[in-house]
């Protein structure tokens, strides 16, 4: 199995997790991080040694995504006491 095949497999597994396990916010964040890991591996496997700026920018975006997700999770836990996605599905009308 090549590195690019593994990267695409990781992205598909992350997307499947994102679709099927949507009950908790932490599950969604882990699935998004899995997809970002797959994208970084795909970029690294396609670039080899030419230019790593694209991979570096993807890593920076992944770190920003993780920090924003953690901040959202902490604020939700402080306000509601739970991290279930059912709390976010309430209709404000």
Describe the protein's architecture and organization:
- The chain is mainly alpha-helical and 93 residues long.
- It has one domain: Helix Hairpins.
- 74% of the residues lie in helices and 0% in strands.
- The protein has 3 helices and no strands.
- The protein has helices spanning 3-20, 25-47, 53-80.
- Helix 2 packs antiparallel against helix 3 (53-80).
- The longest helix has 28 residues, at 53-80.
- It is elongated and about 50 Å long.
- The model has no long low-confidence stretch (mean pLDDT 78).
Short description:
Its main location: membrane. This protein is mainly α and 93 residues long.
The secondary-structure class comes to mainly alpha
Order of helices and strands: HHH
Largest beta-sheet details: none
How much of the polypeptide forms β-strand, as a percent range?
A: under 5%
> Could you name the CATH class?
Mainly Alpha
Shape: elongated
Average residue pLDDT:
78
Number of DSSP helical runs? 3
Q: What is the level-2 CATH architecture name?
A: Orthogonal Bundle
CATH third-level topology: Helix Hairpins
Q: Considering DSSP H and I runs of 4 or more, what fraction of the residues is helical?
A: over 70%
Residue windows where pLDDT falls under 50 for at least 5 positions = none
Number of domains: 1
- What Rg is obtained from the alpha carbons, in whole angstroms? 16 Å
Number of strands: 0
Describe this protein with a few key phrases.
93 residues; 74% helix
SSE layout and pairing:
Elements: H1 3-20, H2 25-47, H3 53-80
